[in-house]
Amino acid sequence: MNGIKIRLLLVWSFLLNCNVKDMRTIDIFRYLLGFCMFGGMFSACMPSTDDIEPVRKVEIKISLQEEDFIDTRFANKEVTIRGSKNSYKAVTDEEGVAVFQDLLPDVYSLAVSYVLPREEYGNMVNPPIEANDVLLNGTLPNLRIYENYNGELTLQMGVRQSLIFSKIYYSGTKNANNKNYDVDQYIELYNNSDQTVSTENIHIALLETESTPWFVEEKEQYIYAKDIFKLPTRDLEPGKSILIARQAIDHTIDAPLSLDLTIADYEVKAVNKPQNSQVEQLPHVYKSLATLDWLNMVVGGGNQLVLFRYDGDVNDLTKKQKPDAKPSHAWYVQIATSMVLDGVECLKYNAQEIDLSKKRMPARIDASYQTLSTASGRTGESIERKVARVEEDGRVVLQDTNNSLEDFVCTSDIRPLIYTKPELQPQE
After folding, report:
1. How many CB atoms lie within 10 A of CB 422?
2. Tens of pLDDT along 4-63?
3. Statement to judge: residues 253 and 369 lie in one domain
4. CA 97/CA 257 separation, integer angstroms
5. CA-CA distance, 96 to 130, in Å (whole number)?
6. Which CATH number does the domain housing residue 111 bear?
7. Helix, strand, coil abundance in the chain, percent, nearest 5
8. Mind giving me the DSSP string for 32-83?
9. What's the N-to-C CA distance of the chain in angstroms?
10. Within 144-302, where are the H helices?
11. Residue at a domain's end among 159, 189, 209
């Protein structure tokens, strides 16, 4: 009741300084009085967060399904669990068990990502082998934790690649007339290794984003593309990037908050769209819908992008339709997950619970996902990869654990080819 008394005193103070003969003032008084009474009663009825009983104990054991491994116990590994409002971290014990205590009841996503150095990996298998660094990833999405929980997370292995996605900008912005503007979308690739790499036979695919995943039973083996682009063959030096624009023009002319993309390496030459004749075309080698000939990323998300290597014509690969689709509906190209070099899941933002029905990749490609800060986009935000370290020669090494939630951040700085931004730097 103290809250109600305070509100009434505030109203009385207001009246002392007003002319109560004015009918508008009387109306305001009635409104304020009602607000005070209702607000007080509402506050009195709302439960305090102190009344919510925490979940006392959540145990997660991590393991690896690998017959040749000498030891599949993973000690001293960090496990992260994220809810809608809170995030927690725990470290595994000698048996590979992470224990979380006193969690607020919520829907959580749990993820494990770390690099197994080539020497360590080589000694953990029988017989020992020489290999590149191995990425171990696993995720448990949509964990509804309202009581004590005991579970297991099986990690998947992936190999660290040289050519990776470094930035994906799809949100769009506003033009000079405050109208929606999204033709300034772009993709940035980066050579994250210390060796020159060739882009021969490397493709970029935008995956299908039907509302309901219809290939769950084969998700570990295949993903399905709605659009595929083929990179022209070139040598890319260590620490160098490739910038691919939907339209390689100076967008600041029409949209001051946008950017000048005339510096792009490639442009998607859409029919009847403004083009830059000075920028090379990025071949659009497969379209699920013939009328969509541009870089067709969804404003707001989700956008699922993969880099993959294929030596033949992608049009010769198996194509499938969504069940019950008509022959005239979209056909999607089947891509074996073993061909994938890198992948990023950009899901649509939802403040309450991310819609994981649109997640398409197995954990060994992307254990988690990243989002914009809003559901609708038009925010001038991008998904950008963090910096892991800077070598003595100045070469930037970007973070790559095959977990977008850990590797990428949502930034409000849409400038490409810049790795010195504070939000990208390693956190102490």
Report:
1. 7
2. 444 444 444 444 444 444 444 444 444 444 544 444 444 444 445 456 789 999 999 998
3. yes
4. 48
5. 25
6. 2.60.40.10
7. 15, 35, 50
8. HHHHHHHHHHHHHHSPPGGGSPPEEEEEEEEEE--TTBS-----S-EEEEE-
9. 47
10. none
11. 159
Which residues pair with residue 87 across a beta bridge?
82
Q: Where are the beta strands (DSSP E) in 55-184?
A: 55-64, 78-82, 87-91, 97-103, 106-116, 134-145, 149-159, 163-169, 173-174, 180-181
Select from 222, 183, 189, 221 the least CA-distant residue to 204: 189
- Distance between CA atoms of residues 318 and 333, nearest Å: 6
Q: Based on the structure, what is the number of domains in the chain?
A: 3
Hey, what amino acid is at 121?
A: Y
Token reading at 316: 């010769």
84 and 229 together in one domain: no
Query: Is the alpha carbon torsion for 402, 404, 407, 408 positive or negative?
Result: positive
Residues 97 and 206 in one domain: no
Q: Which two tokens stand for residue 365?
A: 């490609």
Task: Domain of residue 8: give its range.
Answer: 2-46
| DSSP H or E segment with residue 243 | strand 241-245
- Name the pTM for this structure: 0.78
Q: Are residues 338 and 359 in the same domain?
A: yes
